[in-house]
Amino acid sequence: MSLKTVFIGSINVGKTSIVHRLIWDRFDQERQSTIGAAFSKVQNLDIWDTAGQERFKSIVPMYMRNAVNAVIVYDATTKDSYIDATEYWYQMVLADGEITTRVFLVRNKSDCILAPAPWDEGEAWAYDHTGVSFVETSAKEGTGIEELFDLLCDHVAEPMPSFTNTTTILADGVDESSFCKC
User: Fold this and answer.
1) Burial of 165: CB neighbours in 10 Å, binned 0-12, 13-18, 19+
2) Mean pLDDT across the stretch 111-135?
3) Which pTM does this prediction carry?
4) Distance between CA 163 and CA 176 in Å, rounded?
5) What homologous superfamily does CATH list for 3-178?
6) How far apart are alpha carbons 167 and 105 in whole angstroms?
7) Among residues 9, 47, 150, 173, which one has the fewest Cβ atoms lying within 10 Å of its Cβ?
């Protein structure tokens, strides 16, 4: 069973760099902006890396359909990307995601700062929004990447609340350790 995970956020926040760090464990300083969306498969996660340019925002809702995870990425050095993440992109997830879509707010480029800027309240914002998890990463240095993907896998291995009236996800006697180990 493949689990749809969508990376969204403004242009140049590092969505593609995070995905590439996970898959190939490398960072490319000269990476070009994503055009439309790019697809990658990592174990049982189907990852859609969407473009952040204004002209592609209208197609992002299409990728949000049936998403299990929505990863909203912002640049730790840019106030505008934080505002876009917590206002525009989060609202898009609420409007176009599923009621069971798990939301992750990711502060990327943590290698560029000594401490979060005064305007950066990402961790507190996530805490105040039920169901939103906060992760700090640096795709350049590789910090927080494994933690993010462990959280994505932990979330998808758990029974989702809306499935309580359907088939049991984990049958008795099934070893949970056999599930996703991203």
Assistant:
1) exposed
2) 92
3) 0.80
4) 18
5) P-loop containing nucleotide triphosphate hydrolases (3.40.50.300)
6) 30
7) 173
